[in-house]
Amino acid sequence: MSSWQIISIIMLLGIAAVMGGGGWLLLRYSRQRKQMIEERLSAIKRAAAEKAAAEKAVAEKAAAHSAALARAAAERLAAKRAAVEKAVAEKAAAEKAAVEQAIAEWAAAEQAEAERARQQKVSENREETEANEERLRAVEDAIAEWVEAEREGKQLAASKPGQSPAKTVSQVEAVHEQVRATAERVEKEVHDLEFIKNRIEADVDFLPIEFQQTIDDWKAGKILRRNTFDDLKLKFRYKAYSIEDGYEMFYLYNEWLSQQRQKLRVFIRLLGTEVEKSESIQAAIEQAERKEREKYLEMDVDVIFTLRDIRAILEKLIGMETILKDLESVCRKRSEQIISPSWEARGSL
Fold it and tell me: Does this model's pTM top 0.70?
């Protein structure tokens, strides 16, 4: 082998050795570099984690502080609300107590007033009862005196010299005359009451029609040209306020009916049958008829006839009560026309 070859081999070996050492150094450097980078990344991660932990701790602390502040504010608000509610409850309780006290005082006053009114009503009823009994006694006495005077007068006329003897008038005949006179009076009052009721009822039914016709003629200029609509309404209001349209007749006839019933009781008593206050007139008539028929041959036919006429009067009085109810209904309708006339024009003329 030549020296050139040996040198070449040595040179190749040297180059290989250099290249091998350089590769090893390069590999070692790469490993160290990688290790340094990994250590730096770890350090960065630790720093970031520590920073995040610190920030989280700060945030948690801030949140805890905020929560504490919120709780304190809520507690203060709750305490304030409780104080307000307590004050409101105390005020409501005081007002309720005041109202209850006022109601109790009012109730006591009302009870006292009611008791006073009751006592007054009892006194008035007692006075009215006594007055009615006194009037009834006066009616009985007046009829009894009339009957006695009628008998004595006719007996005296029959006993005068120079005159033919006249039939003696008995008490039953005198009572019968009074019953017939009462029947005639009741018959007349029935017709009068029926006329009044029909007249008012006709006015109630036809007044709106009459008013509407008057309005139509007034609009057309046929009548009352110088009158206003208010004048026409006033005219018809005055017409509605006639004496027959009020309740005066209703109350007068009720009082009159009561008087006639008292008279019938007196008639029955004068015929020999006592009438209890709680007993109806019809029952008293039936009792008197039964009592008289039980006499058989000694029965007084005039008493039966008189009782029959009393029953006829009673039936007419019952009929008048029905007419009075109709009259009250008609008067109520007329009152409604007066207060709020259904015939007043609606809208513009």
Answer: no
